[in-house]
Design brief:
Elements (H helix, E strand, L loop, with lengths): L15 H15 L1 H7 L4 H21 L7 H16 L8 H11 L3 H13 L9 H24 L7 H28 L1 H5 L8 H6 L4 H10 L4 H25 L4 H23 L13 H13 L15 H4 L1
Amino acid sequence: MTEIGAGGAGAWDGSLSASYERCRALHRHHGRTYYLATLLLPAWKRRHVHALYGFTRYADEIVDAVDESSGHDRADRLRAWGDRFFGGDLADPLLPAVQHTIEIFQLDRTDFDRFLRSMAMDLTVSRYPTYHDLLDYMEGSAAVIGTMMLPILMAGGRPAGPGGSAALAAAREPARQLGLAFQLTNFIRDVGEDLGRDRIYLPMEDLDRFGVTVGDLDAARRAGTATEPIRALIAFEVARALEHYALAAPGVSLLAPTSQACIRTAYRLYGGILDEVAQAGYDVLGRRARVPVPRRLAVATASLVSRPGRPLAPPVPSASRWQRR
């Protein structure tokens, strides 16, 4: 566990504000793309987003801890983290902010249970035979993140009562799709990194479709360059991710006006990762795809000045030299 991930950055004084600061520090340290987007939220919303990120990131760090602990030990630690959360333990530096956020927005604790279930899967499951199997994992690891966030993003811009409830219901599925789109983007970008942990988040049926074996992926990772079949596989996965972005796009204009710039920025920056992948010829094993800092700032600025309610176009990665050959 990193110092920040374990609740570092100074001694915790037991206050709620210090708990929110722990979550913010964790978010800033690990979630750079999304952290930049959250700077466009009103401060009163921002800290609640940091709290949810703190909860999810800490669980993820338990699973992916860079230490000598066994899978059994990590499972015990994850279970203990869940017990502290569901038991209302406020002694942990992160949990007061998380519990406070849940109470304010009346978040569904079932989403948190589903999330922890998917994190536990990472300790025992390293391959997904079909996309349906992968979706079952992502329902807890990604889709519920969207539904957790939704009440915060809708707050302050929708009327209470039936009208507000209808808007929340309409935005729910796009929020799920956005979570799936973001996670698929991460899976595509991080193929090599995940292989290093003996995990593959690309469906095995897709590898078979393009004649790619796990050995081929590992050999390409070691060589630092992807073969033509691997590039074709990644192009296929990019197209699938874009379908989720397209389904998520209509939901952005349903959010409270003060939330839209944040989600537009996150949407475009994560979509921009796919553009970088395309520009690299769908070779995600040569280098990690990153959106350049000037483009990040330009996207954030453009989102900030966009009129609330303006339709959001799904990302369309530009054609690479590999595609044009």
